[in-house]
Write a structure and sequence with these properties.
41% of the residues lie in helices and 27% in strands. It has 195 residues and is an alpha+beta fold.
């Protein structure tokens, strides 16, 4: 690579990291501009706050291998992806699991939801196993191609990975699908709020 191309690549990376940091600035949570998943660097694609009525529920950051701005680009993007959450209020575990399943059902076909019942049930079990996620606690969902989705609570993996790329696409659609949990959060995760 020529020195000019190297400098240009460094500038593009710096600008994309700066954009991620700016997006995260609107949240109470400080999301890292970059993190490593299985040796692959992921960039903060966008971050925002989930509101229910006027109440802040959680902050969410979306990490991807490169910046994307549409749901279609996100779903088609190969490689690892990570959803990183911080609870902003106490969240009952059963409610959280049920809301995630409701979001999947509203954004995926009935046949697809039925096909991935076992993985979805695991999602409910993980959150139902806790009486609540307390304000300030964090949890994550991380997809690794060929392995599946691992759920984390306070940095600790909750069992073996489940599902496949199709299942994780259903998970992503909770926030970026046609009927997202929060339209402003969808725009923030896709970086559309900064355009």
């Amino acid at each position: 690579m020529t020195p000019t191309r190297t400098a240009a690549a460094a500038l593009v990376l710096a600008l994309s990291l700066g954009a991620g940091a700016a997006q995260a600035a609107s949240t109470a949570t400080k999301f890292e501009p970059m993190l490593q998943v299985q040796g692959t660097p992921l960039l903060l694609n966008g971050a925002g706050t989930r509101f229910k009525a006027i109440f802040k529920v959680y902050d969410l950051g979306l990490y991807t291998t490169k910046k994307v701005h549409t749901p279609e680009e996100l779903i088609a993007l190969p490689g690892p992806k990570r959803l990183q959450f911080t609870a902003l209020r106490d969240l009952p575990g059963t409610d959280l699991g049920r809301l995630f399943i409701k979001g999947m059902s509203e954004n995926s076909s009935k046949e697809l939801v039925q096909k991935h019942t076992l993985s979805a049930t695991r999602l409910i079990d993980i959150f139902s196993g806790r009486s609540k996620m307390a304000a300030g606690e964090n949890f994550a969902m991380e997809f690794i191609p060929g392995k599946g989705t691992t759920f984390y609570i306070m940095g600790q993996p909750q069992g073996e990975p489940v599902g496949d790329a199709e299942f994780f696409s259903m998970v992503l659609k909770i926030w970026v699908g046609a009927s997202p949990a929060d339209h402003l959060l969808k725009a923030a995760l896709l970086g559309q709020d900064k355009e």
